[in-house]
From TrEMBL:
This is Transposase/invertase (TIGR01784 family). It comes from Arcicella aurantiaca.
Amino acid sequence: MKRDDALWKGLIEDLSDDFLKFFFSNAEEIFDFNRKISFLDKELEQIFPNNPDEFSPKYVDKLIKVYRKSGKDEWVLVHIEVQGSTDKAFEKRMFQYYYRILDKYDRDVTSLAILTDKNKSFHPKMYKKEFIGSSVDFKFNVYKVLDADEKELEKNDNPFASVILVVLTALKKGKISEKSLFDLKMQLLRKLYAKNFSRERITALLRFLKLYVRFESKELISKFDIELDKITNRPNTMGLKEFVLDRERRMARKEGREEGREEGMSIKEKEDKNNFTINLLTQTDFSDEKIALLVGVNIEFVKEIRASLL
């Protein structure tokens, strides 16, 4: 799984209530947020054949099971796709997801496409098909990040408005200097704390901001981390940095377990090497070559874990 994919999937799960309330204006009237929200990702994978050229997810797909607020024990499904590139077959694919989900569960389904690409002219919203008197006219919900109003987002107290601001900042990469990108990232960081979100929300947003908006310059990466230290060590956010680091460690361990099975290495051995590598990366300034030698792994192993912590 690509890093951005994992970030989106994790964020949607961490902020599921906020996510639904942000993208569906009448969410509080429809959904019962007092009941558990479930994610049917494994079930979603089973619906589609494992064929990267046909129906399998091209970017990020989530299937949310949420209960209605009608008082009845009735749940519905929300299919989400985060699309980061243009795709001529996108509308057709959204329809294929819809009818396969409907066929499997026979429940009310709504579909949402979040477009994070840089193409201003890419605006899929409907799939139409007609032949000899038979027709399909499928419409789905669409949110184009490039079309978002930054001023309105800044006024919005929903944490997911901050997520969209992060994505807008990332889309500016390559169009502005890295120094300007750094300044924008720092502005976002300060605004996040000014919102007075809960610790859990701040943690999820901080991780997304840190990893989604990336620099090529090692100097700027280090500078951002220093500024991050100053903020996360303030009394009102004490322990936040440690909490974020713990999540990064768990993600690296999970990736290590999957790789370990493929390579025939025992899970315990892989976790030990992961932990040792993470400690050296976070507590020393050793080169990747030196860490690889100390841990007893190849340099690619170290580089992959370093990338997951950036």
